Amino acid sequence: MRKPIRIAIAAAAMFGAGLANAADITVKVDGVKDDRGTVRLMLFDAASWPRQPIREEGMKATPGSVTVVLKDVAPGEYVAVAYHDENGNGRIDMSPNGMPEEPFAVTKDPDIADAPPEFVRASFALKDGYTETVKLRSMR
Q1: Do the Cβ atoms of 12 and 62 come closer than 8 Å?
Q2: What residue ranges do the domains of the chain occupy?
Q3: Cys bridge to 55: 43, 46, 90, 115, which one at CB 3.0-4.6 A?
Q4: pTM for the whole structure
């Protein structure tokens, strides 16, 4: 009977330690043209880049700027992509050639020609928190 209690206490201590190191990522998204849909922020780690975000949050779009916060993110290396989901379908619409059809921005503002940037060009280290302002751009 004592062993399950010890395991539960050890698991609770490990979980609490993980949250103690967690930090927030705050991204101010400039260049929102109108109030249609939402402004969304996708978070990627090296293993998920650029296919499947590991976290995503959204805020109601308002003209000008929208701030999106991802809370309690474990320390690590990440890329964040913001986009204006103008039609509110919950995903970034892509053209047949794979380019975004909705305004978007990538952390560190890397050059984007015809493919997503390399992870290292857009990534940032999350330790005690991270804040960046990005400006939406359109490829259409």
Answers
A1: no
A2: 23-135
A3: 43
A4: 0.84
